[in-house]
Amino acid sequence: MFSKMLNIGVSLFACASLTTAISANLLANPDIEGDYALWGPWANSFAEADPLDENNTAMKMFGNWSGSFNVSGAFQQFAAVEGQTFEMSAKTLHVTGDEMTADGTEDNWVVMKLTFFDAADAEISFVEENILDGNSPLDAWIDNAPMQATAPAGTAKVGAYIMYLQPMWDGGAAWIDDVVLTEVIPEPTSLALLSILSLGALHRKRKTS
Ligand SMILES: [Ca+2]
Ligand SMILES: [Ca+2]
């Protein structure tokens, strides 16, 4: 009997847990129309006019030409705790005349990365996604699929990073814009149930009116 009740309880919870809310974008200057210093850019990472639209500004990144593996990038960090789920996405572009190449040898690529840090600022886990490389289509902004990550035990901070990686001597520039970092918030069970009940009430009201 108890286990049956428990089962019902668990399946109700599982059902309600499917409901999630998405927070507003946590990033400062997500569209790169404001102060690029808010992104803590390093190496060859700049805010410049979009080559496809002079009225738009985007991040422009390229390699450092040091002759060994190097990274240009930009990032923002926020306080976070275990169990919080974050979602990140970004648009990317490379253009004819300054395109990234893909001959299979020492090719450059661009990632978005969500990194979790502990209170001592040590990296404890991360997820990342390739958002541009020499195989990406040219001359059109690419709307990359969002990725999610959940903060592990010990999390004190989350960092959202955009990074251009150059293993050796390959050229080409990457453009990045409209970066989104949101928190995915599971709706409390009672709220989810309440909204189901309200929908039912609304349905009944419509029927009777
Ligand atoms: Ca922009
Ligand atoms: Ca190459």
Report on the architecture of this protein:
The chain is of the alpha+beta class and 209 residues long. It has one domain: Jelly Rolls (Sandwich). The chain is built from 2 helices and 11 strands. The protein has helices at 2-17, 189-208, and strands at residues 20-22, 45-50, 53-61, 70-79, 85-93, 109-117, 123-133, 142-143, 147-150, 157-166, 174-186. Strands 1, 2, 3, 5, 8, 9 and 11 form a 7-stranded antiparallel sheet that branches. A 4-stranded antiparallel sheet has the order 4-10-6-7, with no helix packed on it. The two termini are 42 Å apart. Mean pLDDT is 89; it is low at 1-16. The structure holds calcium ion (CA) (2 copies). One calcium ion binds at residues 101, 103, 105-107, 170.
Counting structural domains, the number is: 1
CATH architecture: Sandwich
Largest sheet: 7 strands, antiparallel
In the predicted model, the low-confidence regions spanning at least 5 consecutive residues are 1-16
Number of strands: 11
Task: Briefly say what this structure is.
With 209 residues, this protein is of the alpha+beta class.
How is the secondary structure organized here?
Elements lengths: L1 H16 L2 E3 L22 E6 L2 E9 L8 E10 L5 E9 L15 E9 L5 E11 L8 E2 L3 E4 L6 E10 L7 E13 L2 H20 L1
Antiparallel strand pairs: 1-11, 2-3, 3-11, 4-10, 5-8, 5-9, 5-11, 6-7, 6-10
The structure holds calcium ion (CA) (2 copies).
